Amino acid sequence: MNIYFVGAYLRLYAGAWSKRLSFSVKWLLLFVALSFLSIAALDAIGMRLHKDWVFAYYFMIDSSKILAFFVSIGVFLLFKNLPMKHSHFINVVAKTTFGVLLIHAHSDAMRTLLWKHLADVPPMLHASTSALILHAMIWAPLVFIACSALDYLRIRYLEPPVMNWIYKNSDTIEVRTNRMILKLQTMGKRIVGE
Questions:
Q1: In this predicted model, what pLDDT tens digit does every residue of 105-134 receive, in sequence order?
Q2: Which of 45, 69, 115, 174 has its Cα between 20 and 30 A from that of 79?
Q3: Is there a contact between 53 and 47 (Cβ–Cβ < 8 Å)?
Q4: Whole-number Å distance between alpha carbons of 176 and 37
Q5: CA 145 to the chain's CA centroid
Q6: How far is Cα 22 from Cα 7, in angstroms, rounded to an integer?
């Protein structure tokens, strides 16, 4: 979510520096290079200490890690600043990307189902590089396409009637929500007062 918030902020409020393609490319290359250096340095430290070092990918292992975060921002800026013509297909697919993230990575149960049981990724840790690359080239797009199709169906068929109902009943929803908030505040004051 942090990356989405920062991306939205940069898109709306960042200065002219964020709109230059050259800046985006330099930013991305810098943080990709720093990521490789961090992996190499941590791996070298592990080898020097004669330890089975499991922290070599520490700064890249998760999107909340600092280098992964800055690489993600660099990728966002790069694609934001690429001079591309309007494409209806790309815009439709782009609408589904947040849904793709939520579907395939929101819960451990879904990650386990997709990557452990369906895609059978754990045995690929011991596969040859060519088999690993082929496996990734098949499964990553397949999961993206399936999740994108599911979110497209949600956007097309589920969202319009739900949002229309919310728009029609927004006054009633607001009144009931305010009543519920007042009741909760009153209960909270009673509990604190006791």
A1: 878 888 888 888 999 988 888 889 899 999
A2: 115
A3: yes
A4: 55
A5: 16
A6: 18
